[in-house]
Amino acid sequence: MTQRTGTTARTRRFAATAVALLAATLMAGCDDKDASPQAIPPPPPDPKQELLAAVPDAQDPAFRFSTSDASGDVSGTIDPANRGMQMEIVSKDKDFTLEMAFRVVEARTWMRVKFKGERDIQELMKLPTTWMELDPAKIKGSEPLPTYEGNDPGNAEVIIRAASDVQAGEGGTYTAVVDFSTQPELVEAMAEVAPLGDVTEPVPLTALVGPDGNLASLTLEIPAIGKRKASEYVVEYSDFGTAPQIVAFAGDEAKAAPKAAYDMLNNG
Q1: Which of 20, 93, 150, 203 is the most buried (most CB within 10 A)?
Q2: By three-state DSSP, how is residue 157 classified?
Q3: Which of 257, 154, 256, 264 is nearest to 214 (CA)?
């Protein structure tokens, strides 16, 4: 049975080097028994890990969030301790503006709807302007009710994990790129933002970590895709510890949603 001489020779050289190094170490130990051990410097910080550590987690206090893309803006509050979320959505039509708010605590969901415009659409649709508790069993449309899905509504963590060439700058700034062509799960998660599966070049990412160590903002510079213009996807987190807690409504603070509320949701 033959053996590659190159591999064997390299192994012998490695062994000889190790023996010589060990002998030199022992000799040095004999000559200077009292020498103090040299301190090993800590490894340099990893910018990507620093950025990941700044993403909100379940131990954080309540905080505010906002996400913005070409389709519109969503803002609200996350309360990890109570597994609560409240978010506000504003949609504009030529004849009216619709302001919708949802509050989620554990498995319960409430909604508030306000129409603004020349016509009194609120009265026409027989919708109260107060908070209404929704019954998930009565939702028949294709879109389920909002649920509490964790402490990172902007998907910052999965975006950062997919990023490469993460560099730290001054003042808590970071830069990186995201290659969506190799991230099918991330493409699916952000399908409502843009068809990122059609992006062939790495997408620039910038982020800012605030003085409190929390992620303050993350921005993706999305290029033009087909007929879609170039746009930005922006996530912002703020007011850690000063945002209000999100708790369930009590007593008369909310009423059961009327049939009109389900008609609006199921026909949307």
Answers
A1: 203
A2: helix
A3: 154
Answer yes or no: is 120 within a domain. yes
Q: Is the C-alpha dihedral spanning 21, 25, 31, 35 positive or negative?
A: positive
199-242 pLDDT per residue, tens:
889 999 999 999 999 999 999 999 998 888 999 999 999 999 99
Q: Which pLDDT tens digit goes with each residue over 181-209?
A: 999 989 998 888 888 888 889 999 999 99
Q: Give the separation between CA 119 and CA 95, rounded to whole angstroms.
A: 8
In sequence order, the 6+-apart residues with CB closer than 8 A to the CB of 259 are none
Cα–Cα distance for residue pair 154/233, rounded to 1 Å:
9
Residues 42-81, buried b or exposed e (16+ Cβ, 10 A)? eeeeebbeebbebbbeeebebbbbbbbbeeeebbbbbbbe
User: Total domain count for the chain?
Assistant: 2
Examine the domain organization and report whether 108 and 152 are in the same domain.
yes
Same structural domain for residues 177 and 88? yes
CA distance 46 to 51: 9
Average of pLDDT values for 37-54? 84
Interval 27-36: pLDDT, tens: 455 555 555 6
Its pTM stands at 0.79
Establish if 261 belongs to a structural domain.
Answer: no
Residue 75 confidence (pLDDT) above 80: yes
Range of the structural domain that residue 1 is part of? 1-31
75 and 8 in a single domain? The answer is: no
The verdict on 205 and 127 lying in the same domain is yes
From the list 121, 150, 100, 95, the residue with the least C-alpha distance to 257 is 100
